[in-house]
Amino acid sequence: MDKGSTGSKQTKRYSWIIGLLIFITALLLGCIIVKNIEKEKKTAAAYTAQSTVKRINAQLDQYVELSEFLENVILAGYDLNQTTFSELAEMLPNEAGVVKAFELAPDGIITDIFPKQGNEQAFGMNMLTEHERSGDAKRAKETGKYTLGGPYQLKQGETGALLFHPVYQNNITGNDTFWGGDHSYRLG
């Protein structure tokens, strides 16, 4: 009887040890699998974020190029009256209609908008003094660099972002003087 109970105790002990080893192995494998899944999700999220940033930068680069084109037209001395501005703005590429309006703002005051329809409320608005956007418009004027601002509740009743582009002309004395904003994009 002693031998049987000793054998039974050893069998139980081996069963417990094997069971414990299987449990620890399964736990470790589970942790490794969870870590790999977590790593894959982080990698996918990082890729998605990077590709989104690249798409946004590419779109902003396109807006900046359009802005620089209009700036060059202004600096070349062309008269951008409402008709000329509308004709020019109509020819600018606007993928998927992302740009809702092109605005011309000499001395910060919006004098021309393309398209006019639906944007009438913004005519005559002083970007440097009116509305919550004045801080971003002033920052663009002071730094001489593009400023992307928003989201704003726009006069047109929508929410949108604006790309402010200050234009400086070289005057007779050789100093740069603020002409205004060649346009703001209302991005919807």
From N to C, what is the helix and strand string? HHEEHEEE
Number of helices: 3
| Helicity range | 40-55%
Spatial strand sequence of the major β-sheet: 2-1-5-4-3
How far is the first residue's CA from the last residue's CA? 88 Å
Could you describe the largest sheet, including whether it forms a barrel? 5 strands, antiparallel
Dominant shape:
rod-shaped
Structural class per helix/strand content? alpha+beta
**Radius of gyration in whole Å, from Cα?**
32 Å
Oligomer: single chain
> Per DSSP, what share of the residues sits in E-state strands of 2 or more residues?
15-25%
Report the count of strand segments: 5
Summarize the structure in short.
The protein is α+β, with helices and mostly antiparallel strands. The chain has helices spanning 2-75, 82-91, 134-143, and strands at 99-106, 112-114, 147-153, 159-170, 176-187.
